[in-house]
């Protein structure tokens, strides 16, 4: 219903609107709305009808007693069928109140209306839930995942309600109550501030002592009370200093240090991880809470250094990761804020030692954590400390040395040295269990060594160093059967290539080949090609871990794309070299002449492809032979590009470069054939792409020949003459004739067997694949030349039939006939030869000849009778029309004479049709030339020719009728 609404709406809209497409769209939209509305209304009506039928069926079922099953068979009649399927308006019969069998449809199926449409599906027609089979199972609902806010709420709920909920809630309420008590007492002035703070401190101490005494009986209660006591003591000291000024900063600082030390001691004594975390949180917060804005950063960092040394001592005994993270984030967050807000260059000498100490502490903490946390797969690695420490530490270090020349580069070298030294030490002493940590440190050391390069050098040198570094990392990973160095090497080479792309177009020396971007690009390409060579044996050896298996599968498909990218990158570097601008004496100028640029670029590609082909054939590396298949496209593009630059193949030094390129191309074709013959027998089963390369080589020769002819036209300054207009056609005719005479000699298998390469086995590629487009070009080019060229033969005079245009047309028809004969005689016949053997092919050639002969008269009228070479002037000229009348009559006469002699009745009829056209033309066109001599000549000449035809070439008899002898004089009717 909806589809029909869209269809008819679109039809009506398109027919009634001025804009067809706009009416089509609007009508379809209105039809959609109408269809939806109608379907909704119909569904509502059907739902109401169904409820009515259910009510009536239920009433009838209650009123009718159960009936015995009928024994007589039911007759199949139209009346019975109507009873089983009543129309929509009929009242459904009452159904017996019998329980349906499990495999039968519910009773409603007997009374529901049968509607032959899929659009009337409505929930009202579904089986009620109470009547559905018991085997139906509702589909499970889609799983839902909590949001981050829900996750945080769930975690807080779990802490509050998990374990001893009453204790935790009570402690929380007590803490809040003590805070309120202190505030209320301060407002009411009931007790002195000192007394209130002492009372709160005593409560905290009592919680701490009582919790410690319960450490054996109730460990969970003990730690909770001790943590609350530590928090209360911290709060008391902070309030005494910050809120009420009762103690000086130094005593307050000392008290908080004592509280932190006491808490750490209790945590170690009880092996209480949470208590230590609470203690150090308070310890790191102490200087922030007690800060007055005028303190010394040296004192701050010295205090943090003591806290971190304490964390390092605990890390030596315990693998408390959360405690390490508390020290890590607290230290670097505060240090980062100080660096952003307060650091000045004169602070460097005092800040640098602390930063070095912090970095070394957390590196040591990551090593101790790995040592104290063994797992089934080796020691665990804290990724936050392992990778966060160098990233944040180097970021702070970069800010410290930002004003020092090469300071960041030396800092990167220092970081790299530290991590490489640690990796070496773990390699010697850590054993297999520390393998993962050692690899992480090795990757970080290599990364910082890599980072030092762009901080000290420009982007071009960075790309080279990174490429060599990536190549070395890949080689090490391959020798040691480790996937991480190989992955790092691939990543480094990829990043180096992207960096180098920015410098490809940079201007350099005005001398050829003296461009760093070229050699840097070649180094990058060499790195990629070496990696591709190593990856050809993928999968490479690896450790067998899950990540190694994943990377091995990725490596298995990288050899081919890596080689293609490397080869393409080398060619891109060479392209930018041949087309770049150099700077000399402050002026920008092309390094290579514009005429030489296309051929230089092409020659670089061809040489590189030839080297790759030689290597691929020698090392049995299949992908290395692929670029040689693209030699021909490079040659064709270079030839067209060269023509656009106004250069020619016979100019120096282009002819030498083209000679080298074509020689390498022929050598590559021979190598590709030999490579294919080594794996496929017989050699005649060469793939299509090899045939295409041979065919395309003929097209390249056609382009080169046309370019040489254009050079002669350019030298003689004949661009506006007919000599220039026949260049394309003559070059195509010459190559097509050469293909027919050379490759046509091997058009049969027994002839090919006597020939050498390339005719055996590629002769069909030349006389069929290559010749077919050239034949089409010759046919179309001859038509275009005949209609458009006026035959300007300056500096020579125009001579009919002996001028470049008509000679080219004649040669075109001769070569097309020669090619058709070669194709028809070939065995096995190429696909196009079947059409060439039909009568349509000679008709096409006859049509070309007819057009060419007609345009000869046009050029004669133009040169000898002064008719302008314009379509309207030629058509309106009675000289032209008279000549056409005579010419067409002569053609008709020749056709009819030939048909009469060979008894070809259809050909005679064709000549008669052409003669009829002449007569019609005389009446419609030539007759309008009142008083003109041309009209007289036309009528006389046509009349005489028709008499001659009627006398010498009457209509041949039908094939089934006997010839009738008659007097020739009586056959001519007046």
TrEMBL record:
<keyword id="KW-1133">Transmembrane helix</keyword>
<keyword id="KW-0472">Membrane</keyword>
<dbReference type="InterPro" id="IPR014600">
    <property type="entry name" value="UCP035905_mem"/>
</dbReference>
<feature type="transmembrane region" description="Helical">
    <location>
        <begin position="878"/>
        <end position="899"/>
    </location>
</feature>
<feature type="transmembrane region" description="Helical">
    <location>
        <begin position="224"/>
        <end position="244"/>
    </location>
</feature>
<feature type="transmembrane region" description="Helical">
    <location>
        <begin position="725"/>
        <end position="744"/>
    </location>
</feature>
<feature type="transmembrane region" description="Helical">
    <location>
        <begin position="626"/>
        <end position="644"/>
    </location>
</feature>
<dbReference type="InterPro" id="IPR019286">
    <property type="entry name" value="DUF2339_TM"/>
</dbReference>
<feature type="compositionally biased region" description="Low complexity">
    <location>
        <begin position="57"/>
        <end position="79"/>
    </location>
</feature>
<feature type="transmembrane region" description="Helical">
    <location>
        <begin position="798"/>
        <end position="819"/>
    </location>
</feature>
<feature type="transmembrane region" description="Helical">
    <location>
        <begin position="936"/>
        <end position="953"/>
    </location>
</feature>
<feature type="transmembrane region" description="Helical">
    <location>
        <begin position="650"/>
        <end position="669"/>
    </location>
</feature>
<dbReference type="Pfam" id="PF10101">
    <property type="entry name" value="DUF2339"/>
</dbReference>
<feature type="transmembrane region" description="Helical">
    <location>
        <begin position="461"/>
        <end position="478"/>
    </location>
</feature>
<keyword id="KW-0812">Transmembrane</keyword>
<feature type="transmembrane region" description="Helical">
    <location>
        <begin position="556"/>
        <end position="575"/>
    </location>
</feature>
<feature type="transmembrane region" description="Helical">
    <location>
        <begin position="765"/>
        <end position="786"/>
    </location>
</feature>
<feature type="transmembrane region" description="Helical">
    <location>
        <begin position="406"/>
        <end position="425"/>
    </location>
</feature>
<feature type="transmembrane region" description="Helical">
    <location>
        <begin position="298"/>
        <end position="315"/>
    </location>
</feature>
<feature type="transmembrane region" description="Helical">
    <location>
        <begin position="377"/>
        <end position="400"/>
    </location>
</feature>
<feature type="transmembrane region" description="Helical">
    <location>
        <begin position="195"/>
        <end position="212"/>
    </location>
</feature>
<feature type="transmembrane region" description="Helical">
    <location>
        <begin position="322"/>
        <end position="341"/>
    </location>
</feature>
<feature type="region of interest" description="Disordered">
    <location>
        <begin position="57"/>
        <end position="103"/>
    </location>
</feature>
<feature type="transmembrane region" description="Helical">
    <location>
        <begin position="689"/>
        <end position="713"/>
    </location>
</feature>
<feature type="transmembrane region" description="Helical">
    <location>
        <begin position="24"/>
        <end position="42"/>
    </location>
</feature>
<feature type="transmembrane region" description="Helical">
    <location>
        <begin position="517"/>
        <end position="535"/>
    </location>
</feature>
<protein>
    <submittedName>
        <fullName>Membrane protein</fullName>
    </submittedName>
</protein>
<feature type="transmembrane region" description="Helical">
    <location>
        <begin position="437"/>
        <end position="455"/>
    </location>
</feature>
<feature type="transmembrane region" description="Helical">
    <location>
        <begin position="595"/>
        <end position="614"/>
    </location>
</feature>
<feature type="transmembrane region" description="Helical">
    <location>
        <begin position="353"/>
        <end position="370"/>
    </location>
</feature>
<feature type="transmembrane region" description="Helical">
    <location>
        <begin position="840"/>
        <end position="858"/>
    </location>
</feature>
<feature type="transmembrane region" description="Helical">
    <location>
        <begin position="487"/>
        <end position="505"/>
    </location>
</feature>
<feature type="transmembrane region" description="Helical">
    <location>
        <begin position="165"/>
        <end position="183"/>
    </location>
</feature>
<feature type="transmembrane region" description="Helical">
    <location>
        <begin position="275"/>
        <end position="292"/>
    </location>
</feature>
<feature type="transmembrane region" description="Helical">
    <location>
        <begin position="250"/>
        <end position="268"/>
    </location>
</feature>
């Amino acid at each position: 219903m909806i589809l029909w609404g869209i269809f008819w709406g679109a039809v009506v809209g398109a027919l009634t609107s001025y804009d067809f497409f706009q009416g089509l769209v609007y009508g379809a939209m209105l039809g959609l709305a109408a269809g939806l509305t109608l379907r909704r209304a119909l569904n509502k009506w059907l739902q109401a009808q169904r409820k009515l039928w259910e009510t009536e069926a239920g009433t009838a079922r209650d009123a009718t007693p159960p009936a015995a099953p009928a024994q007589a068979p039911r007759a199949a009649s139209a009346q019975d069928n109507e009873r089983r399927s009543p129309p929509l308006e009929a009242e459904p019969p009452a159904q017996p109140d019998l329980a349906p069998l499990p495999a039968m449809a519910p009773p409603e199926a007997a009374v529901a209306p049968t509607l032959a449409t899929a659009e009337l599906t409505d929930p009202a027609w579904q089986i009620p839930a109470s009547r559905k089979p018991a085997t139906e199972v509702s589909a499970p609902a889609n799983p839902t995942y909590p949001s981050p806010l829900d996750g945080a709420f769930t975690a807080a709920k779990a802490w509050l309600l998990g374990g001893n909920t009453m204790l935790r809630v009570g402690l929380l309420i007590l803490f809040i109550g003590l805070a309120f008590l202190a505030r209320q007492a301060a407002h009411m002035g009931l007790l002195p501030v000192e007394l209130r703070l002492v009372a709160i401190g005593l409560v905290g101490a009592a919680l701490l002592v009582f919790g410690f005494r319960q450490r054996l009986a109730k460990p969970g209660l003990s730690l909770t009370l001790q943590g609350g006591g530590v928090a209360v003591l911290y709060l008391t000291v902070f309030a005494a200093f910050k809120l009420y000024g009762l103690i000086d900063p130094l005593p307050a600082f000392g008290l908080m240090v004592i509280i932190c030390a006491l808490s750490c001691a209790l945590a170690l004594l009880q092996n209480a991880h949470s208590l230590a975390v609470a203690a150090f949180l308070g310890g790191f917060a102490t200087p922030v809470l007690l800060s007055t804005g005028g303190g010394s950063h040296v004192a701050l960092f010295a205090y943090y250094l003591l806290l971190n040394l304490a964390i390092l001592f605990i890390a030596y005994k315990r693998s408390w990761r959360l405690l390490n993270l508390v020290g890590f984030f607290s230290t670097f967050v505060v240090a980062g804020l100080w660096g952003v807000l307060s650091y000045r260059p004169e602070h460097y000498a005092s800040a640098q030692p602390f930063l070095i100490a912090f970095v070394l502490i957390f590196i040591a903490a990551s090593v101790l954590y790995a040592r104290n946390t063994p797992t089934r797969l080796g020691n665990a690695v804290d990724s936050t400390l392992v990778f966060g420490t160098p990233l944040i530490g180097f970021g702070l270090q970069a800010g410290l040395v930002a004003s020092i020349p090469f300071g960041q580069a030396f800092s990167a070298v220092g970081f790299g040295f530290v991590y490489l030294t640690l990796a070496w030490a773990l390699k010697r002493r850590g054993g297999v269990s520390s393998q993962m940590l050692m690899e992480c440190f090795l990757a970080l050391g290599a990364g910082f060594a890599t980072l030092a390069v762009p901080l000290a050098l420009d982007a071009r040198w960075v790309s080279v160093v990174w490429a060599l570094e990536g190549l070395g990392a890949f080689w090490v990973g391959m020798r040691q059967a480790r996937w991480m160095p190989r992955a790092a090497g691939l990543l480094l080479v990829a990043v180096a290539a992207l960096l180098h792309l920015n410098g490809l177009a940079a201007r350099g020396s005005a001398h050829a080949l003296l461009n760093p971007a070229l050699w840097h690009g070649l180094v990058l390409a060499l790195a990629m090609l070496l990696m591709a060579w190593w990856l050809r044996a993928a999968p490479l050896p690896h450790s067998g871990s899950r990540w190694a298996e994943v990377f091995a599968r990725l490596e298995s498909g990288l050899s081919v794309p890596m080689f293609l990218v490397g080869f393409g990158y080398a060619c891109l570097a060479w392209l930018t070299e041949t087309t770049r601008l150099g700077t000399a004496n402050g002026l920008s100028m092309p390094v290579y002449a514009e005429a030489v640029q296309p051929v230089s670029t092409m020659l670089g590609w061809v040489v590189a492809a030839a080297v790759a082909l030689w290597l691929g054939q020698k090392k049995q590396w299949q992908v290395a032979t692929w670029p040689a298949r693209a030699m021909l496209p490079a040659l064709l593009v270079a030839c067209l590009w060269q023509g656009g630059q106004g250069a020619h193949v016979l100019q120096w030094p282009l002819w030498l470069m083209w000679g080298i390129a074509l020689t390498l191309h022929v050598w590559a074709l021979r190598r590709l054939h030999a490579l294919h013959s080594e794996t496929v027998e017989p050699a005649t089963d060469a793939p299509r792409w090899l045939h295409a390369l041979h065919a395309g080589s003929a097209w390249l020769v056609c382009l080169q020949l046309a370019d040489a002819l254009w050079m002669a036209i350019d030298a003689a300054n004949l661009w506006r003459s007919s000599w220039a207009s026949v260049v394309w056609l003559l070059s195509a005719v010459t190559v097509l004739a050469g293909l027919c005479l050379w490759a046509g000699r091997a058009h049969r298998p027994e002839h090919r067997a006597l020939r050498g390469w390339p005719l055996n086995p590629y002769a069909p590629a030349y006389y069929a694949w290559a010749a077919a487009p050239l034949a089409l070009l010759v046919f179309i080019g001859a038509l275009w030349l005949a209609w458009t060229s006026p035959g300007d033969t300056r500096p020579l005079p125009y001579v009919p039939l002996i001028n470049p245009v008509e000679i080219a047309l004649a040669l075109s028809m001769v070569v097309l006939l020669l090619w058709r004969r070669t194709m028809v005689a070939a065995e096995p016949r190429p696909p196009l030869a079947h059409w060439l053997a039909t009568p349509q092919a000679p008709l096409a050639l006859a049509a070309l000849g007819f057009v060419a002969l007609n345009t000869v008269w046009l050029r004669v009228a133009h040169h000898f009778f002064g008719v302008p070479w314009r379509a309207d002037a030629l058509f309106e000229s009675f000289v032209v029309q008279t000549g056409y009348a005579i010419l067409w009559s002569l053609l008709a006469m020749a056709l009819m004479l030939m048909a009469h002699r060979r008894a070809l009745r259809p050909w005679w009829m064709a000549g008669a049709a052409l003669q009829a056209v002449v007569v019609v033309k005389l009446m419609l066109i030539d007759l309008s030339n009142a008083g003109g001599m041309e009209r007289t000549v036309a009528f006389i000449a046509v009349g005489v020719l028709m008499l001659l035809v009627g006398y010498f070439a009457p209509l041949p008899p039908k094939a089934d009728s006997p010839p009738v002898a008659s007097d020739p004089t009586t056959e001519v009717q007046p």
